[in-house]
Write a structure and sequence with these properties.
mainly alpha
C-alpha cells in the first residue's frame, strides 16, 4: 500500500478533508450545552465562559491568516502535523483545568491549532480542482461541515447525561489524534512553494487583498455568516433561560436547526446552480432580511417561532456558502493558501463581531440583538451584491 493513503482523487481524501473542515464546529458546538454548568463549576459568569466560544472563533480565524501563507512556503503537511499536535496538547490540558483563566488560554491554543487544520481543508481543494469539480467538492465539504454542528451538540448533551463537561474535551483530544494520523497519510499537494523569507510569505496576504477583484466579494460575502454566529452566541441563553428548556432539549433544537442547513447545499447542487447565480443570491439575501424583521417583531413569542425564523436564516446561509466561496476562489489565481485563509478568516471575523455585538448592554434582550444583526446584514449586502454582480470578472 502507498505510504500516502490520502492522494488527490482518493475517496479517503474527501473524507479526511471533510473531517478537517469540521474542527471548528466540533470544538465549539459540542460543549455549548455545557456552558451553564461550566460557569457554575468554575464559579464564574455565563458571559465569561461564553468568551471561550467567541474567543475561540477570533483566534481560529486570525490564525488562518498565518497558517495559509506558511503552507504556501513550507507545504500543507507540515502545517497539518503542527496543528494536530497543538490541538491534542491543548484539548488534553482543558480536560484537567479548573480555572477559567487557564480555560480561556488553552482554548486560544486549541483555536490556533484548529485554524491550521481547517485552513488546509479548503487549500488542498483549491490545489487540486478547478471548474465544476471544484464547485461540487466545495459543496460536498460544506455539507459534511454542516453535519458537525448538527451532531455535536446532541453528542455533547448525551455525554452530559452521564458525565461532566470534561468528557467532551476527552473526545476532542481523540479527534486531534485522528487528525494527526490522517496528516501523516496525506500526500503533499502544494503546487509551488513561495520563495523568500517567512515575512515575504506572510506579505502575500496584502498582495492578494490588493486585488480588488477578490477583495470586493470577500467583504460582501464575509458578512453573510453574521446572523448564524449571533445565534451561536446566544441560542443557549435564549432557549434555556428565555424559554426555560433543558440542556438536552436545547441540543435537540440546535441540531434541528443545523439539519435544516443540510438542504442548502443539496438544493444548490440539484437546483440553484442551474439558475441565474445573481438572482439566487439576491433571493437568499432577501429572505434573511425579512427574517430579521420577523425576529424583531415576533421573536419573543415562543421557542417555535424563534426556531422557524432561524431555520429559514440558516437554510439561506448554507445555500449561499458554496456559490459565494467558488466566486471568491475563482476571482484570483495563485497564492492558494493565502486566498483560502482569507476566505475562511473573513466570514469568521465578521461572525465573531456579531457574537460580540450580542453581548453589548443596550439590547433589550438577546432576540432583539439577533434580529437587528440579521436585518442589518440584509440591508447592506443586497445593494452591495447588486452593484458587484455587474462588475465581476473571472481571474
Amino acid at each position: 500500500m502507498s505510504k500516502h493513503l490520502f492522494r488527490p482523487g482518493n475517496r479517503w481524501l474527501v473524507a479526511f478533508l471533510a473531517f478537517l473542515g469540521a474542527f471548528s464546529p466540533l470544538s465549539t458546538d459540542m460543549y455549548l450545552p455545557a456552558l451553564p454548568s461550566m460557569a457554575q463549576a468554575m464559579h464564574t459568569s455565563y458571559n465569561l465562559v461564553s468568551l471561550t466560544v467567541s474567543g475561540f472563533i477570533l483566534f481560529f480565524s486570525l490564525s488562518m491568516l498565518v497558517w495559509g501563507p506558511l503552507s504556501d512556503k513550507y507545504g500543507r503537511r507540515p502545517v497539518l502535523l503542527t496543528g494536530s499536535l497543538l490541538y491534542i496538547l491543548s484539548s488534553a490540558g482543558i480536560t484537567f483545568t479548573g480555572s477559567i483563566v487557564t480555560l480561556i488560554l488553552l482554548r486560544a491554543v486549541q483555536a490556533t491549532a484548529s485554524g491550521a487544520l481547517a485552513a488546509m481543508s479548503l487549500t488542498v481543494v483549491k490545489d487540486t480542482m478547478r471548474g465544476e469539480r471544484l464547485e461540487k467538492m466545495v459543496t460536498l465539504l460544506q455539507t459534511f461541515t454542516i453535519i458537525a454542528p448538527m451532531l455535536a451538540p446532541v453528542a455533547g448533551g448525551a455525554l452530559l447525561a452521564f458525565a461532566n463537561w470534561r468528557i467532551i474535551f476527552c473526545v476532542l483530544t481523540l479527534c486531534g489524534c485522528l487528525a494527526l494520523a490522517g496528516s501523516l497519510a496525506l500526500r503533499e499537494t502544494c503546487p509551488r512553494r513561495t520563495a523568500g523569507s517567512v515575512v515575504t510569505a506572510l506579505g502575500r496576504l496584502f498582495v492578494v487583498l490588493g486585488n480588488g477583484n477578490f477583495l470586493r466579494p470577500l467583504l460582501i460575502f464575509s458578512m453573510l455568516p453574521m446572523p448564524f454566529f449571533a445565534y451561536l452566541g446566544v441560542s443557549s441563553l435564549v432557549y434555556q433561560e428565555g424559554f426555560g428548556i433543558s440542556p438536552q432539549e436545547y441540543s435537540a433544537f440546535f441540531a434541528a436547526n443545523a439539519s435544516i442547513s443540510l438542504f442548502g447545499p443539496i438544493l444548490h447542487m440539484r437546483v440553484f446552480r442551474f439558475l441565474p447565480r445573481t438572482r439566487v443570491i439576491v433571493a437568499h439575501m432577501s429572505v434573511m432580511l425579512v427574517c430579521g424583521m420577523l425576529l424583531l417583531l415576533f421573536g419573543g413569542q415562543g421557542k417555535w417561532f424563534f426556531f422557524a425564523a432561524y431555520a429559514a436564516i440558516t437554510f439561506c446561509g448554507s445555500a449561499l456558502r458554496a456559490p459565494t466561496t467558488v466566486i471568491m476562489m475563482e476571482s484570483i489565481r495563485g497564492d492558494n493558501g493565502a486566498v483560502t485563509s482569507l476566505i475562511n478568516c473573513g466570514g469568521l471575523l465578521f461572525g465573531c463581531i456579531a457574537m460580540q455585538l450580542c453581548t453589548l448592554p443596550f439590547w433589550g434582550n438577546a432576540i432583539e440583538a439577533t434580529g437587528t444583526i440579521t436585518l442589518s446584514v440584509g440591508i447592506i449586502t443586497l445593494p452591495a451584491w447588486a452593484w458587484l454582480s455587474k462588475r465581476l470578472r473571472p481571474a
